[in-house]
Design goal:
The chain is mainly alpha-helical and about 550 residues long. Helices cover about 60% and strands about 5% of the residues. Helix 1 runs antiparallel to helix 13 and helix 4 runs antiparallel to helix 12. It is globular and about 75 Å long. This is SulP family inorganic anion transporter.
Length: about 550
Amino acid sequence: MTKKINLFANLKSDFASGLVVFLVALPLCLGIAMASGTPLFSGIIAGVIGGIVVGYLSQSHISVSGPAAGLTAIILTAITDFGAFDVFLMSVFIAGLIQLALGFLKAGSISNYFPTNVIEGMLAGIGIIIILKQLPHAFGYDADFEGDQSFIQNDGSNSFSFLFDVLNHINLGAVVISLASLIILISWEKVPFLRRLKLVPGALVAVIAGVVLNEFFVYSGSSLAIAKEHLVSLPVPKSFDEFKSILITPNFAAVTNPQVWVVAITIAIVASIETLLCIEAADRMDAQKRYTNTNVELRAQGIGNILSSLLGGLPMTSVVVRSSANNNAGAKSKMSAIIHGVLLLISVLSIPAVLNKIPLATLATVLILVGYKLAKPATFKHFWEKGKYQFIPFVATLVFVVATDLLKGVALGIIISIIFVLRGNLKRAYSFKKEEYEDGDVIHIDLAQEVSFLNKAAIKLTLSEIPQNSKVVINAHDTEYIAHDVLDLIREFKETRAIDENIKVKLKGFKEAYELENSPEINNHVSIEHYYDVAKRALVKKEVVKEKF
């Protein structure tokens, strides 16, 4: 059941988190635009639309949309082939229409079949990418553009060899500012009285400190002063006419060009998959364990890309880096994403000269801490303790996300997860048959003998339709294998929504089921046809009986 959301209910924490995301998003929007071979303001336009429009239309509470590094190669190739930016914008316009149609066709439901260990592996992989890519900026070496996530860089080096190049280009002023920023950020999380200053985020204090330090170095004539090329570089329009020239509209005459449609379909597919992956990841990060309607999300992204193209902006997706920064900053609702978009709009129109004083080293330090939280050692330990069926897909996804890209890494992780599931003893799977029930009835949900991650969508739907003030018995006595994803889903339902909506939940047999989850003896082979057939069958039955809650 969907609750009506009051966007202003958590304005204090959402404003602080929106401010942090704004600081993180600004150089990323500029860097991705630069790498895509487009006007710098095209990245800002996409960030503003992604924050305000998509943020408002989306049902996700912590995800943030904007230009994505995963689309840079597609954009650069397309613009080179077309020879005109306005022709490319026609592709973005069509891509938005396709995403809108996918949302109405309920294509977003495929996100329910992404395994948790693969999503967590993707997040950890992105965390490592952030650390690898931002360390050079923290040392004052800005040869690579902000927002780059490619293992193999444009100059032929890779993320690891590039770190050794940093040793020959260390900027002492950037190192001093990075260390000062790091001390501020850690202190804001660890020192009790500073943690209570939620309205003033540590990232903002670190940015202000970085600007003040560098201005002191400049005016004192110190050799530690950071040069202009190591600061944020936002275009500064000198007149209203110059600003109007930034806004470019699509060339609608190019609609008959077959290549425009090929690029549009490519953007729509890649952007939609990346969005669904990021939304699933954002839901996993959400402390309140709220679920996002992914079909609504696709429609929101489609509208966002249509508007972005009409104003001369880049295509966008939901982005893990910004969403992670949003979550870490304490966002409570989607108001934080909207605020970040508003701040982007106001700042680039009113104070671009001030923003251009921000050292990239400070922003790099903020992102490095975000990366660490995504790839912290506790996550590796967690999946190691879950056994090889959880750990191997997690690590494989992580490695391939870092070494290739997000989509290839996730695809490999899902393939490995399916292979492991097929090796399990899948004699019976979980599904459900919806039945009518009356107020006061005890709803019984009997889990089948085998429950895999592919059954997560059906179970999530069942749990979402349980009415308020009801009584539910979830029985796993006969269950020999239950996927970790399903266990998390049921546990989160019991500990969050059930409490909020006065649903009394009784679990039976889950200790035994959990112990069997990682049993090395679950290794029988079954055919893929049998697996998909039995994955559609199971039992949810309603009984009016007396249960002791």
